[in-house]
Structure formats: C-alpha cells, structure tokens
Write a structure and sequence with these properties.
The chain is mainly α. It is built from nine helices and five strands; from the N terminus they run βββααααβαβαααα.
Length: 243
C-alpha cells in the first residue's frame, strides 16, 4: 500500500510504495494524491475493472495536433506555438528520461524536472539547436540561458490542457489517463516579468506627430491601434468592404 511521507531535513514529500521511494516535492497535496492514485490503480487491477488504453507520448501529441487543426480549426500561429511546446517537451524527455515512452509513465516529478531544465538550459533565440562551440564561446548574442517564468507558465498550462484531453475525452477509447499528472503541480510564479509603463498623453501625441512625418502608412496603423485598443492580430485581419 502506498503512503505519503515527509522528510523534515530536506522539507520534501515522498510516496513510499513497496520498496520504492518516489520523490514528489514540497506539495503535501500532490504526494497524497499520488499515493491515492497508486492504491486505486492496484485495487482496480485486482478486481479486473476498467483498463486504460496504453498510448505513446509522441502519437498522443500527433493526435492532439490533428484534432486542433482539423476539428477545432486552429489558426496557424496557434498551431505553430503548440508544435514548439511539444517539440521542447519531447526533446527534454529524450535527453533526461529516454525510457519514458507512454503517457502512463508521466508523473509530477518529470514535469518539475522539466521546469528546472527549461530555466537552466541554453537555447537559441531562433529555435536552432545549441552547438558545443556556442557554449564554449565567451559571448554569443543569439544564445540565452533559460527561458522566462512567463514562457514556462504558458508551456505548462498548454501541456496541462492537452493531457486533460487524455482524461476527459468524449470518446472513451481516447481516455488514456485516469488523472492529469499536472493537476496538482504548484502554479509557476512569474517573478521576472517587467512592469509595463503606459505612454502619457503627451508622449502619444509626440509619437504620432513623428510617425506622420516619417511614414504615413505606419502612422495610420499606430493611430488605429492607439485609438481603438485593438490587438495587432485584429488589426492585421481587418478587411475593407466596398459599399
């Protein structure tokens, strides 16, 4: 029988199960949830209750992207963002957890490790792989060490919503998980977000006067943005209709 266990010296929660000690983290709630999940799965297995369909992680993400593209008619910009998040997570698994192949193997500890990995791993701004030469160089303007807290929060939120599909899909054949492993992950705190200062009325006037003299087309674009509050995507998709 699995049970949650807390070590005071490391202030860390574990789940003890048979001869295995599973590190969970600092969340008591997550540790108890994992212990209950293990006990429930063992109980269901012993009496022959519903067995989930095993699904590889890669094929699951392919299924999600197909669903988003064909059924939900997702815009290309959003689809590209989804593809990037999936690519980052799959690369992480290949490097740090090469034996984790199936959805059922994903747990809270893996995603906590993913967060640490994304915070500390060098990456290129243009998305290309980092070379050994870049890491050895004293300075590389294209190389960054770790992504922002905001980026990590977006990635985790996206992965959580995808995995929820595997829990609550309308098609019983596509319910590959009993629980979402990200359900009890502590929310990522955004500490590095820079505070934005809005332009004053005087600054707006000066900016528009400058743009009107410099570039009339850009002036009209910024004038519309500043006076309507539209997003850049909304402005780009405006169409002129003849009356």
């Amino acid at each position: 029988m699995a049970k949650a266990y807390f070590r005071k010296d490391t202030r860390t929660w574990y789940v003890l199960h048979k001869k295995e000690k599973i590190k969970v983290g600092r969340s008591k709630r997550a540790a108890k949830h994992l212990a209950d999940k293990i006990n429930l799965e063992e109980a269901e297995g012993s009496v022959g209750l519903h067995k989930l369909n095993e699904k590889s992680i890669e094929s699951f993400f392919e299924e999600i992207l197909t669903y988003k593209k064909n059924i939900r008619d997702l815009k290309q910009k959003s689809l590209t963002r989804y593809q990037g998040i999936i690519r980052n997570f799959l690369n992480f698994l290949k490097i740090k957890f090469p034996t984790v192949i199936y959805l059922s193997q994903l747990d809270l500890a893996i995603f906590e490790s993913y967060i640490r990995y994304r915070k500390t791993t060098p990456f290129n701004k243009n998305g290309t792989p980092v070379t050994d030469k870049q890491i050895g160089a004293k300075k590389d303007g294209n190389l960054k060490i770790g992504v922002s807290d905001k980026t990590i929060k977006i990635e985790i939120g996206t992965l959580k919503s995808m995995l929820q599909y595997a829990v609550k899909s309308k098609d019983p054949r596509k319910r590959y998980l009993r629980d979402n492993p990200l359900e009890y992950l502590e929310q990522v705190r955004v500490k590095d977000q820079k505070q934005k200062r809005p332009l004053t009325q005087e600054e707006v006037i000066r900016f528009l006067v400058y743009m009107k003299e410099k570039d009339k087309e850009l002036y009209e674009i910024f004038f519309s943005l500043l006076h309507t509050g539209m997003r850049d995507g909304e402005l780009r998709h405006l169409e002129l209709k003849e009356t």
